[in-house]
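Entry 14. Ran structure prediction on the chain below.
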Amino acid sequence: MSDREGSRGTTVAVVYNPVRVDVPRVRAAVEARAAEAGDIEVIWLETTPDDGGQGQARQALESGAELILAAGGDGTVRAVAEALRDQDATLGILPGGTGNLLARNIGLPYGSVEEACAVAFDGVTRRIDIGVATAEREDGERTEHAFLVMAGMGIDARMIATARPELKKRLGWVAYVESAFRALPRSKKVRVRFRIDGERERTAHVSTILFANCGTLPGNLELIPDSEVDDGLLDIAVLQPATVFGWLAIWRTITWENRVLRKSALGRRIIPFTNRAGRTRLSYLRGRIVTVRLDEPEPFELDGDGFGDVVGLDLTVDPQGLRVRVPR
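Output, structure tokens:
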């Protein structure tokens, strides 16, 4: 099959979140591309408060769609991708959310629906990993969820839970910065016990622990600089600042070491001699299977959406479990 599979002589489905996208503009962009390609049937499936995209994506698969476009924020993309895991259909992304995290990490345009639509129809298909998190609740219930960018607990999960909807709508991802500043003064360390690939159990008191499939955040911040979306591994970032100055040291690591120094051979040679204290507050680990246990329930998040409180997480990666359309 060609790398344009799913864009000619077939069914294309659009799973769209009417709250997150300009529906008339999305419809016009998709229908224009479909008409240009020719011999395409487009079906439209709207998400609901009770179903953020999984059911609609499964309906699209049952209808024979080979290319399924997720038009919405990270939550919509995550839900559609969960249904497309290990399927032959390809995911196209029309970003319309606060963070557009996966789009940023795989080089998709996220400022123009027309440009994103062009990639969805005429780009190439790439296989990427999907993270899988099994959450254990306090009552013993276990639920499995997919994620594309990262899972986390600690301040990041509390920040997401308390972000103000009106600011998210007006300011986009900057609303999370405001929420973080409100969360920091009341933040407490979380005691976590975790094991990577069956090795010895580690214990840490963390402000945040993240499990990432890819590591670029809004603002082109390289939180996890060596993370790859198709390496079959989870990258783990452990943040353990003792004071506000510790947070400043972490910020320096992310914005200076990760974003600037790592971009050149000379910079990489300089890193071992700069700000060693900051690096001890931000540790990087890597593995295929991670188990986490907590002393008491804590909120956790997946791709920027809160998923309630857990007492444990089992995380792994489904290597190249998703087909996604990317730029040529």
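Residues 1-8 have pLDDT under 50 and may be disordered. Will compare against last week's run tomorrow.
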